[in-house]
Amino acid sequence: MLNTVIGDVGHLSVIVAFVAATVAAYSYYKAAQGRTLGDTDASWLRIGRGAFAVHGLAVFVVIAALFGIIHGHRYEYYYAWSHSSNHLPVYYMISCFWEGQEGSFLLWIFWHVLIGFVLMRYSRRWEAPVMSIFAGVQLFLTSMILGVVLGDLKIGSSPFILLRDFMPDLPVFKLNPDFVPKDGTGLNALLQNYWMVIHPPTLFLGFALTLVPFAYAIAGLWKGELTKWVRPAMRWTLWGGLVLGVGIVMGAYWAYETLNFGGYWNWDPVENAVYIPWLVLVASLHGLVLWQRSRTALRTSFVLVIATFLLVLYATFLTRSGVLGNASVHSFTDLGLSGQLIIYLMAFVVLAIGLLVWRWKQIPISPKELTTYNAELWVFVGATVLCLGAFQVLVTTSIPVYNAFLGFIGIKSNLALPADQIQHYTKIQLWMGVGVAFFSGLAQVMWWQKNNKESLTSSLTVPGILTLLGAALVILLVQYYGLKMEVSYIVLLTTALFGVLANLGMVFTLMKRKVSLSGGGIAHIGIALMLLGVLASAGYSNIISQNVSGLLYSREFDETTNRDNVLLWRNDKAPMGKYDVSYTGQYLDAPGVPGYVDKQLLFRTADEYKALARADIKRGDQVYYKAGDTVDILPENTYYRVEYKDRKTGEAFVLYPRGQVNEEMGEGLLASPDIKRFADHDIYSHISAVPPPDKEKDWSEVKEHVLSVGDTIFLNDYFAVFRGVEPAHQTAGLGLAKGDLAIQGDFLVFGEKKQYHVHPVFVVRNRLIGRVPDEVEDLGLRLSFLNVDPQKGKFTFGVSTTQKDYIILKAVEKPFINLLWSGTLLMAVGFGMAIYKRRHETEAVLEPTGAEAVPTLQPQPKARQVA
């Protein structure tokens, strides 16, 4: 039944949220206008707070309405129909919420509301100027989901549009305007992963957090408080660096677990659009640290903090304007928001640059000249390296934007992205990693001591010697195993080891001095470990599924597929590196049953999400379904059971790489890997090809056998014993009615490794004869019950055969990839320690009035933490 009330409520709430954000932005602006920091107009301040509270409440209503539409399967709404389906579990319905552009904008708006409430409670004197910026951003974001049409002008794209309004030309709506589909198109298979439930919210929280230091910086420029903004901005920058960094690695881990390109980072433009602002954010964090310690780099801090948020807006334009449609596999399509996105971006670019130019000469600078023995110099150089790395990625990723802009002004452009993007980015970003690793170790050592030639030499001797010894040992081991090491790899290995050892040594030194641990030191160790993990896992991945058969699998495959994959016939053993590998069957996911269920235990019904159990489905002694029970299944994905057995040790494990036929994704087979994790490496396996599942099997001509109970027949390389005839069960999905007759043959087929029970069915209904054959997929056999001779006690069965099932599998060994994931955890711990260190800092203590505004050029105590 068509329900427009919930959509009307949601759409009205969006309008209320937009108007309230507009009122809040204006009221907070008026509260702070023409006044010094902390001196606000009380009446305008109350209006601003009230308006933002109304805005937040309206946003919560919008979220509730949209999720209610998705959860309630209200397919009269385009958003629910295009992103959800009847059989999705609740946690994937959450993913449906932000799969579309409108939902992801709404998620971003939601985080801004929560952060805005925190700022209203704790920002004190900064509330009015900061919240005016904050509410202004909310105004623009809310306009993206407004969905209001004024003549020829469309403002935003509403998530509450009805399907009949979005697709009015469909014939069904001309016949029945109130038509509601029974099911939706479903959630993209690649997004049906637990990381997609937590990765997008984390990433958008990181985006939202970058707005806070930006708002403080703009407020500082606006109010002329050019130094006081640093401390509150520092705390929020730390949170942004932590959350956005973890969100990015979550996305990398999702790609590693779900996609089949063989890694965790593919330098896709959408990946780059997130990576760039994080690099600049980390650089801005180091700039803020330099100002707090020695009153240097304040101008740099302003520029980098502002640039971070502007790059987030630019990333939003890249991924949502459709400009990357031909360059990225997972950018959003254009919903007609390109103009709004450009206005959104340019509004804040103009505001920020205008304020910077206005205040530039007033921003304090240090007359102190930095020398080789100043730690601040090397921190600044490290931040510069981060910015250069971000700039290189930005310039190349923006090539489609250049083309679009030149085309807009009438100039034809033939600029193209690099043919091998991974090689293009990696060869430059590798050297950025070298710089980051080296300068993070050097600066950390110098940060905690007074430096001269003697003290610096003494401090660097031990980590330097250990680094050279460690690097030499690794190089010798690499050569021992017959591998080569390029010069760039040697340099990255050496500097990353130095980053680990120098920072680790300083952490131990601080512990001996009973000084609070450096969160920066821990984070730097994590970054260096990540670089080592990337070097090992990406630089020395080993394809163990080499084709050693001497056969060409198919002329339709490219050279690498024929070379780097192994053909596995069902239940046959094949060598793969040090393993013997067997493909043992296809499995389905049955919610409530641990693991996966063998397809041969299920009889499929007309409802693709239901099957009948042909035998008891159990795990150990616990029976989950008895023979004949209806089993709920998730049919989209087929899991291919692959057994690995080490020939030397005899140790074995089982993997279930996933495959899905998905023509909508432009591929015959959409494959996801399964991974066996060891301490020092991963075995990463995915399906490259399977027999076309949409093509009818090519069965041989039926060969008839007239049998008596107890007879044995030979079937190619196998034999079967006819054990008798019995009444057919409902396991065949016959839907037997009174007066129907159904019997089934009972065969025991002896295969290579196990026995199979086969039950072809013979049915008599309304004097019509029907036959339901039974198939042994493992053996490529099909038995049909053809006839009955009750007088002679003879039964006629037909046997036909087909090519055995097979898969083509690729398996890659990823050495020391755990260094990447453990380094990420250490990086997060380091950020967390820095945040915890600053938890008690308040404006009252940290921002004295009067002389505080005059920058002090003397360094602060050396016990201060570097983040």
UniProtKB/TrEMBL annotation:
Q: Where is the Cytochrome c assembly protein domain?
A: 102-321
Region (Disordered): which ranges?
Answer: 847-867
InterPro entries recorded: Cyt_c_assembly, Cyt_c_biogenesis
| Membrane-spanning intervals of the chain | 12-29, 50-70, 105-123, 130-150, 203-224, 236-255, 275-291, 298-317, 337-358, 378-408, 428-448, 460-481, 487-510, 522-540, 816-836
- Keyword Transmembrane present in the record's keywords: the answer is yes
- Keyword Transmembrane listed: yes
Keywords of the record: Cytochrome c-type biogenesis, Membrane, Transmembrane, Transmembrane helix
A Pfam match? Cytochrom_C_asm
Query: PANTHER family attached here?
Result: CYTOCHROME C ASSEMBLY PROTEIN-RELATED, CYTOCHROME C-TYPE BIOGENESIS PROTEIN CCMF
Family statement: Belongs to the CcmF/CycK/Ccl1/NrfE/CcsA family.
Q: What protein name is recorded for this chain?
A: Cytochrome c assembly protein
Source organism per UniProt: Hymenobacter glacieicola
